[in-house]
Amino acid sequence: MLVTLEGIDGSGKTTTISSLQEVYPTAVYTLEPTDSWYGDAVRNSIHANNADPLAELFLYMADHAYHLQTIIIPALDDGKLVISDRYIDSRYAYQSASLDGIIEDPLSYIEKIHQPWTILPDLTLYFDIPPELGAQRSGSTNKFEQISFLKKVHDNYEQIISKNPDRFVRIDASLPTEDVIQAVIKSISNSL
Asked: Rounded to whole angstroms, how far apart are CA atoms 69 and 30?
């Protein structure tokens, strides 16, 4: 089973992953961008304010392809529970915000180029917080953490959820951390 944690920067996904490792110790924990050289290229682009948004999309896609082939598919083939901190929906939400005004209907474009080869999650937990709170928590340290950008990303997530309501569970990430963790554990346990 593939479970993904999604949401804007500052929503608490990474904090929650640490707690899940105690509850599901045999699960495979992973993240995007990966710790590969593909992921390094993505992280470099995140901190480059002049990075070309279309080139950046394809860096993220290369990292995702690597992630699928080296971690996700082998773990699923072994019957493991896989929990990923970010996955395709982050790319859909963030890169379509970056490409807004450059490509017509960027969200559909990005979904179409992934469709033939990606694997959809069985369950996606969406950590929902207001963009202002996300920017405050994340520290607004890069171009993807600015309030105006996070508002676009938040809107894109809402579009994605409306097209895939059966796959998503909305988690109120503005609640205290322990409440968020308990809601996540309950959602995963109900799906196993």
From this structure: 13
Range of the domain at 155: 2-191
**This prediction's pTM:** 0.92
In the predicted structure, residue 163 carries a pLDDT above the cut 60: yes
Q: What is the largest CA-CA distance in the chain?
A: 44
Whichever domain contains 167, its CATH number is 3.40.50.300
- 115: number of CA atoms within 13 Å, CB side? 7
Structural domain total, the chain = 1
For residues 36 and 158, the answer to whether their CB atoms sit within 8 Å is no
| pLDDT over 80 at 137, yes or no | no
SS3 170: strand
Reduced to 3 states (helix: H, G, I; strand: E, B; else coil), residue 61 is: helix
